[in-house]
Amino acid sequence: MKFGCFLLSFALSALPALPARAVDLVFGVSTGSAMPMTQFTDGQLTGGLLKDFGDALARELRMAPRYLNLPRKRVEEALATGRTDLLCDLRPEWLDGKHWLWSETVFSNKLIVASRTDTAPLPQLAALADQRVGTILGYRYPEIETVLGNHFLRDEAGSDDVNLTKLLRGRFNYLLANSLYYEFQRKVHPERARLNGTSYELLGFDTYCAMPADGKVRIDQVNRAIAALRKRGEMQTIMDRYRPLR
After folding, report:
1. Which of 59, 78, 170, 229 could form an S-S bond across to 84 if both were Cys, CB 3.0 to 4.6 Å?
2. Which among 158, 215, 184 is positioned nearest to 27, based on CA atoms?
3. How far is CA 148 from the centre of its chain?
4. How does residue 83 score in pLDDT terms, banded at 50, 70 and 90?
């Protein structure tokens, strides 16, 4: 009997060790974004720049990516309560907390004022005063608020796609958008012929990932992972995947 137990123990020890389950890396994702940043199917994030980047970053960190969809106004709360580990595609001035750590650049983008082809492109920012402007609920536009003050009339929408639909239906003549989103839609949207090819560029900006100082991953680990993805050309490959052919 003892000999049989010894043989069983020896056989089990000879088997390859099963890999431990990878630790989840939870990304908070705003439901206010749309393609090419995010694609949602049945309430789940299934594609887009943020998912491809998150998958690549987690793989580099030897972790398992998981995505928590949240309204824009609740993404920071999820980071503060530990429900998420990272918030990506953001800037420090867009969040309330001043204690978050910020990664190296993830995406480069532009804030623009877009319009339909039946509307003249915006000549200058001051011309937006007292005009209803398409904006995203929970998003901050400090550059515009500084110039227009109380004359900045926001027409809120829950997502970029809803905002664009309102523009095309004549709810307003101008909307605030990021160039990655708008240029993508200008090539794939069914009514793309009605989208003005000329837009007013407010500013160029980079976005980063925010994380707590005592979180699941260290800031230097994340930065090394992003640097490795760039060096291997994976970041460029991800960007090219969502750059439609002209």
Report:
1. 78
2. 215
3. 27
4. very high
Residue 195 has pLDDT above 90, yes or no: yes
Measured distance CA(140)–CA(35) in Å, rounded: 20
Write the burial class of residue 228 (CB in 10 Å: 0-12 exposed, 13-18 middle, 19+ buried): middle
Distances (CA, A) of 232 to 105, 186, 219, 225, 235: 16, 30, 20, 11, 8
Question: What span, in angstroms and rounded, lies between the C-alpha atoms of 169 and 163?
Answer: 10
List the CATH code of the domain at 24-108+207-241. 3.40.190.10
Q: Are 200 and 112 in contact (CB under 8 A)?
A: yes
Neighbours of 114 (CB within 10 A): 29
Q: Which architecture characterizes domain 109-204 according to CATH?
A: 3-Layer(aba) Sandwich (3.40)
User: Hey, what amino acid is at 1?
Assistant: M
Quick check: 9 pLDDT over 50? no
pLDDT digits (tens, 9 = 90+) for 208-217: 999 999 999 9
Range(s) within the chain of domains with CATH label 3.40.190.10: 24-108+207-241, 109-204
Q: Residue 212, preceding bond cis, omega within 30 degrees?
A: no
pLDDT at res. 21: 67
Q: What angle do CA 105, 142, 157 make, to 5 degrees?
A: 90
Query: Any idea which residue has 């929970």 for tokens?
Result: 138
Mean pLDDT of the chain: 91
Angle between helix axes 49-60 and 219-231 (nearest 10 degrees) is 110
